[in-house]
Amino acid sequence: MSDDIEIDTDDLERRMDGAMTALKHEFASLRTGRASATMVEPVMVDAYGQMTPINQVGTVNVPEPRMVTINVWDKGMVGKVEKAIRESGLGINPQTNGTIIMLPIPELNEERRKELTKVAAQYAEHARVAIRNVRRDGMDQIKKAKGNGMSEDDVKFWESSVQELTDKHIALVDKALESKQAEIMQV
User: Fold this and answer.
1) Other C-beta atoms lying within 10 Å of the C-beta of residue 72
2) Computed over its alpha carbons, how large is the radius of gyration of the chain?
3) What residue spans in the chain does CATH classification 3.30.1360.40 cover?
4) Which top-level group of life is the source organism from (predicted)?
């Protein structure tokens, strides 16, 4: 293997890891029937003339397995936070008690569980596509290096390295999807 032409597999791996991180974040926002502070993270509140993440207008807590509470810091913001939650598509009806907004998490029915597993599968497919795009970039780098004089042996070595990295990350996506679907279907 020549030392003068090398493919940056660390960069490719970092980018594939980024796709996995994004997938885990998307999975965390899926409601599974159990309360989680991350499920309200995507909710944006119109605070003081600009859209603000909900965790920047109040403290999000999970006091029990089926309840999320948001302790809103500014009493004037309670109505806006409540409205943002209703319009977020979470399917949760907030209950207000002073500056505390309670979000009771209802039990998921079988139909909704199946819908959520399909959504999880879509998220996983997006992650696989992102990983394959990184693989394609790596293969393009190898083709360029081949044009610049990389030997056939080196080309084969780097292609197999990039493919190995891709296969490893696709397997991680599949494992994460399987785990999330099992979690969603659990009653």
Assistant:
1) 23
2) 22
3) 37-104
4) Bacteria
What average pLDDT does the segment 43-59 reach?
A: 88
DSSP state string for 117-135: HHHHHHHHHHHHHHHHHHH
**Start-to-end CA span in the chain (Å):** 54
Predicted confidence at residue 138, as pLDDT, reads: 93
| Nearest-angstrom CA–CA distance, 181 and 175 | 10
Confidence (pLDDT) at 107: 77
The pLDDT of residue 113 is 83
Quote the CATH superfamily of domain 9-28+109-185.
Ribosome-recycling factor (1.10.132.20)
pLDDT at 49: 86
